[in-house]
UniProtKB/TrEMBL annotation, chain A:
The keyword Signal does not apply. The keyword Membrane applies. GO terms for cellular component: plasma membrane. This is Dipeptide transport system permease protein. It is a multi-pass membrane protein. It holds the Pfam family BPD_transp_1_N. It comes from Kushneria sinocarnis. It is found in: Cell membrane. Keywords: Cell membrane, Membrane, Transmembrane, Transmembrane helix, Transport. The lineage of its organism: Bacteria, Pseudomonadati, Pseudomonadota, Gammaproteobacteria, Oceanospirillales. Belongs to the binding-protein-dependent transport system permease family. OppBC subfamily. CDD domains: TM_PBP2.
From TrEMBL, chain B:
One of its GO terms (cellular component) is plasma membrane. The lineage of its organism: Bacteria, Pseudomonadati, Pseudomonadota, Gammaproteobacteria, Oceanospirillales. Pfam families: BPD_transp_1, OppC_N. Belongs to the binding-protein-dependent transport system permease family. OppBC subfamily. Keywords: Cell inner membrane, Cell membrane, Membrane, Peptide transport, Protein transport, Transmembrane, Transmembrane helix, Transport. This is Dipeptide transport system permease protein. The keyword Thylakoid does not apply. It comes from Kushneria sinocarnis.
């Protein structure tokens, strides 16, 4: 197992270096230089421009700049935003909890609904329930989520008036945010109704973001259950006279969950991509909205840092999923060796 | 068909009672037609293509003409609507139906261009990686791993940020983002095929590497690629619309479905029709391609057959 872990870790190093090279190269391929962007409309005299380029180290050869970038990266320095002049790492970290809170709730929604639906569809294969669940799942999978979010707003905020349209908390509440997780912070504060207000703000974005993972998980659970139900040990369990629910819950589900775990792990990257759209629709102050704002403000260091951090997180999650998979299923571990 | 018969009958004397095996393509088509949903998907796609081609004839107005006295007019069945704007008008008085019909043209074009670009380049890279192996393979696959570690829409956003917003750059970005899937798929099939007897036989017969790659091996790797192409067609439509929605794809007044939605966002609570119909068009198109892709996979994948 240690050997397996070590090899997986070793494989991540070149990928990580590759991501740093790509993000570095992309930002340097963007037409126009950072000094000109910072100067904005007013412009700069050529001497002042050259002076600032030298100050920022932008006049040196690219490979030197890259090594410098890598060196600072090792020390946790991702540079400064061109717009706010704050450190990018702290800008990222201050917004990350909002995205994490949203993604976790979306994933809970997707898993909590997707696995039972997939199991039911698998057990009742060919029935109306199966067709209904799979048809809905395929529709959810094909859903343009930026449109889905707008529809949810029309229905639940417009017609029914149940939920607010945007943000994380109504402006009437003033609470401390020690953890930056709104659900936890509102619980810790003694403002009455603040928690429910936060929940009302969270529910539509979470449903919107969780829809595609829900569809993927339901489809995967169904096909995985179908595969497992054909195995010999299920027949043995049936022959022993075990109760049907016990066969499903204990024997089938546990083995069927192995591929589902992988699929759930793969959703993490998709959740970040979906967060860009969801946060834009619901004005959710997270990473996705920050990245899109950075693009439109041409704040390229922020974009670079953000992409790098997200890619690193996706890599780590994939690694953890790989390891868990090896842990659950010894066959994978030995195959790799 | 006669050829297939001649091949099978010597080893199997009972074939005289069994009808001759249908042509492989015919068999795939029959399997495909048995799947009613997939057939429905194909029909809807055909319908969308016809509508897109005939947009100039069917659409009541041009997609950019502004009727200033009919701003935000509801669809015809609601009070205040009229049949001259069947699905209503947007915030500057453009006919929503006409824009959606012309938008179908754009979406089909986006799908075709993106799929062609990523298919051609991806298959080429995958063939090289799988056939040559060694450091070339490692380099290509590592590069694909790196691309896969960045969420696809995010990577597309960055590429568009570098190239500048616009429909063409958005298509290019999406095509780049889809490359790894084709490369992996092709490489995987090439590696299983390259040591098969028929490949060895043609190598011994003196076929050069190019002939082996493109004429001998490639046709036998096509099935999963066709399925992937159908599924990524729908993803291309979806992602192009998403980029348009974020203001990074097609720019106004282009009647692209995603950028129509971006524009309609501010009227979401006042004029539901401006938001609903373009999104519905995206959903129906994507759904039709996904259903057809699923059906194709079932028909082409021999493991799932029977």
């Amino acid at each position: 197992m240690l050997n397996f872990l070590f090899r997986k870790l070793l494989m991540i190093v070149p990928t990580f270096l590759g991501v740093t090279i790509i993000t570095f190269a992309l930002v340097h391929m963007i037409p126009g230089d950072p000094v000109a962007i910072m100067a904005g409309e007013r412009g700069l005299s050529p001497e002042r421009h050259a002076q600032m380029m030298a100050q920022l180290g932008l006049d040196r050869p690219l490979w030197q700049q890259y090594l410098d970038f890598l060196w600072r990266l090792m020390h946790g320095d991702l540079g400064q935003s061109l717009v706010t002049h704050n450190a990018i790492l702290s800008e990222f970290m201050s917004r990350f909890p909002a995205t994490l809170e949203l993604s976790v709730c979306a994933l809970i929604f997707a898993i909590g609904l997707g696995i039972p639906l997939g199991v039911i569809a698998g057990i009742k294969r060919g029935s109306i329930i199966d067709h209904g669940v799979m048809g809905t799942a395929l529709t959810g999978y094909s859903m343009p989520i930026f449109w889905w979010g707008l529809l949810l707003i029309i229905l639940f905020s417009g017609i029914l008036g149940w939920t607010p349209v945007s943000g994380r908390l109504s402006s009437s509440f003033w609470i401390d945010t020690p953890t930056h997780f709104m659900l936890i912070d509102t619980l810790l504060s003694d403002a009455p109704g603040a928690f429910m207000d936060a929940v009302r703000h969270l529910i539509l974005p979470a449903v919107c973001l969780g829809t595609i993972p829900l569809a993927v998980i339901a489809r995967m659970t169904r096909s995985s259950i179908l595969e497992v139900l054909g195995e010999d040990y299920i027949r043995t369990a049936r022959a022993k006279g075990l109760a049907p629910w016990r066969i499903i819950a204990v024997h089938a589900l546990r083995n069927a969950m192995i591929p589902v775990t992988t699929v759930i792990g793969l959703q993490i990257g998709l959740l970040f991509a979906g967060a860009i759209l969801t946060e834009t629709i619901f004005s959710w102050p997270g990473i996705g909205k920050w990245l899109i704002d950075s693009v439109s403000r041409r704040d390229y260091p922020a974009l670079q840092g953000g992409i790098l951090l997200i890619a690193t997180m996706v890599m780590i999650v994939n690694l953890v999923v790989d390891l868990l998979y090896g842990l659950i299923n010894p066959r994978i571990r030995h195959q790799a060796e | 068909m006669t050829q297939a018969n001649a091949q099978t009958s010597p080893d199997n004397p009972t074939t005289s009672e069994i009808p001759p095996a249908p042509h492989p393509l015919r068999e795939v088509w029959n399997d495909f037609c048995e799947n009613r949903a997939a057939l429905a998907g194909l029909i809807i796609i055909a319908l969308i293509i016809v509508l897109a081609l005939l947009a100039g004839v069917i659409a009541p107005h041009t997609p950019v003409e502004q009727f200033r006295e009919h701003v935000l007019q509801p669809p015809f069945w609601q009070a205040g609507g009229s049949l001259s704007f069947p699905l209503g008008t947007d915030d500057v008085g453009r006919d929503v139906l006409s824009r959606i019909l012309y938008g179908a043209r754009l979406s089909m074009m986006i799908g075709v261009i993106v799929v062609t670009l990523s298919l051609v380049i991806g298959v080429l890279l995958g063939l090289i990686a799988g056939y040559v192996r060694g450091w070339v393979d490692t380099t290509i696959m590592r590069l694909m791993d790196i691309m896969l570690s960045i969420p696809s829409l995010l990577l597309a956003v960055v590429v568009v940020a570098v190239l500048g917003p616009g429909l063409f750059n958005a298509m290019l970005a999406i095509a780049i983002v889809y490359l790894p899937h084709y490369v992996r798929l092709t490489r995987g099939s090439v590696i299983t095929e390259r040591n098969r007897d028929y490949v060895v036989a043609s190598r011994l017969a003196g076929a050069g590497p190019l002939r082996l790659m493109f004429v001998v091996i490639l046709p036998n790797c096509l099935a999963p690629l066709i399925v992937q192409a159908t599924l990524s067609f729908s993803n291309a439509v979806l992602d192009a619309a998403a980029l348009g929605f974020l203001g990074l794809g097609a720019q106004p007044p282009t009647p692209e479905w995603g950028s129509m939605l971006a524009n309609a966002r501010q009227y979401v609570l006042d004029a539901w029709w401006v938001v609903t119909f373009p999104g519905l068009a995206i959903l129906i198109t994507v759904l039709a391609f996904n259903i057809m892709g699923d059906g194709l996979r079932d028909a082409l994948d021999p493991r799932l057959k029977r």
